[in-house]
Amino acid sequence: MSIDFKGRVAIVTGAGGGLGKQHALALAARGAKVVVNDLGGDVHGVGGSVSAAQAVVDEIRAAGGEAIVNGASVTDFAAVQAMVQQTMDTWGRVDILVNNAGILRDKSFAKMDLADFRLVVDVHLMGAVHCSKAVWPIMQAQNYGRIVMTTSSSGLYGNFGQANYGAAKMALAGLMQTLSIEGEKNNIRVNCLAPTAATRMTEGLMPEAVLKALEPQAVVPAMLVMASEDAPNRTIICAGAGSFEVAHITLTQGVHLGLTPDTPERLAAALAQVTDRQGETVPLSGAAQGTLEVGKAMVAHGG
Ligand code: NAI
Q: Ketoreductase domain: from which residue to which, for each copy (predicted)?
């Protein structure tokens, strides 16, 4: 069955270049009306111009699609609210939000300035929070919404020099976990995309031959599936070079030790068993994980 976005309205942040541009072009090519948002700064978040985003809008329109440009910084909640209002005034709904805008301020943690830490968290995490918050009541009222957060393997697994970026990206997985639970009753599905692609963000980080295999277009199918009517909910899809995987935050079977004065020593001795991955699960929520632990204690005490 083909994936079609006719009648749907999408906002893609950071869509002036790189992955966001490909997301916007692909959504529009499949019928969505697209808000092409981009602040237009450099990869470190310095400067700003709406010309790159306007060029994407022009490309969509030249191909017969519908698009409007927006130059809001996702860090500015009032500007984000105005962008969402502009979307409502133009098309009357918001079905899809792709939180894609991002910057880098890489340095080893020892050398990292706290201002660079805060800015990266502000753009990635608070940017996605602002956009999600602004569209949330609209999606609730529509009883329909699809939100894609852009996380990263740097957050899921760590990368040297990216403490700020990794923390912000993993926070987006946490945001997704709760929004996907809260949105369910209104048919709002929230998922994460963990892309790998050759863009200005990865320039110089990987050898030329590797970058060649990583065309941004190869990531887009994962976004399209998560933006579609039949989207999954609460999924982290990794995508790069045409390969797709799902990342889970799992829980081992563990062991119940109870509380005695020597619990720390018994835990240290049992660490291999606690970390053993055989039979690990993915709890349905944080509360479900807590309930699991209480259940083990009750079994241990014959309750
Ligand atoms: P990019 O630098 O080409 O795209 C990011 C876009 O976001 C730029 O066009 C930039 O102007 C825009 N932007 C930055 N700050 C903004 C703000 N405050 N408000 C609005 N727009 C803003 O880089 P790329 O690679 O296309 O990145 C897209 C997303 O994918 C980012 O969230 C990035 O962290 C993520 N990502 C990329 C990976 C890759 O391999 N390229 C790996 C993992 C995640």
A: 8-204
Give the separation between CA 209 and CA 182, rounded to whole angstroms: 43
Q: Is the CB of 41 under 6 A from ligand 1?
A: yes
Task: Find the angle CA(92)-CA(56)-CA(22) to the nearest 5 degrees.
Answer: 95
The third-level CATH classification (topology) of the domain covering 9-247 is Rossmann fold (3.40.50)
Ligand 1 atom with the smallest distance to the CA of 193 is: 44
**pLDDT tens series, the chain, 303 aa:** 799 999 999 999 999 999 999 999 999 999 999 999 999 988 888 888 899 999 999 999 999 999 999 999 999 999 999 999 999 999 999 999 999 999 999 999 999 999 999 999 999 999 999 999 999 999 999 999 999 999 999 999 999 999 999 999 999 999 999 999 999 999 999 999 999 999 998 888 788 888 889 999 999 999 999 999 999 999 999 999 999 999 999 999 999 999 999 999 999 999 999 999 999 999 999 999 999 999 999 999 886
Which residue among 5, 117, 144, 165 is the active-site one? 165
The residue ranges of every structural domain in the chain are 9-247, 263-300
Collapsing DSSP states into helix, strand and coil, what is residue 244? strand
Q: How far is the CA of 215 from the centre of ligand 1 (A)?
A: 15
Kind of pairing between the strands at 243-247 and 236-240:
antiparallel
Distance separating alpha carbons of residues 41 and 53, to the nearest angstrom: 11
165 is catalytic: yes
**Nearest atom in ligand 1 to 42's CA:** 11
